[in-house]
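Supplementary Methods, section 5.1.

A reviewer requested that the exact input to the structure prediction be made available. We therefore reproduce it here, unchanged from the version used in the analyses.
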Amino acid sequence: MGKMILSALLAVLLAFPLAAQTSQQAAPKNPFSAWLLKSYTVNRNFLAKSAEKMPEEFYGMRPGSQQEVRTFGQILGHLVNNNYLACSDAKDGKNPGQGTDFEKVTAKADLVKALNSAFAYCDGVYAALTDASSMQMVQMTTDDGGKVPALRVSRLIFNITHNNEHYGNLVTYMRMKNIVPPSSEPQ
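The structure derived from this sequence is encoded token-by-token as follows.
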């Protein structure tokens, strides 16, 4: 996980100055955090549209019969859990979703509402980010519930990467039901 975050951060940091040099527009005050907000927003919108677009009758579907593979709804619940966790790590450590396992929520309306709430919380975290604050150290929650120091930006990049990974899962589920995913809709 650490190597993936470091590789993604390094690629962004190396590519960003080249992109900035070719731009004819005035650079925003915080170009890196502005780029990060845009990246997060595009993906979060695809996820939110996927949750809305998939009929409730398919929220319990999983490819195959392996119970360890998450259903469509469980993936959404997992995303709710993770977005609250990642953004609370990046903000102040106080997780507003703590105490609820959203993977156990099954109703579409409840999952859509929870996903939108988690995204609204993260929207504020990404919007408040500056290039300077992105380089501050925060405590990142590990898989075993422990804490390790990390750059704020690494926690937020990992969140985007994680969201993208699961968007890929959702796309597969949607395609299995002949539903065009949001990223493939005509612009």
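The mean pLDDT is 90. These observations are discussed further in the main text.
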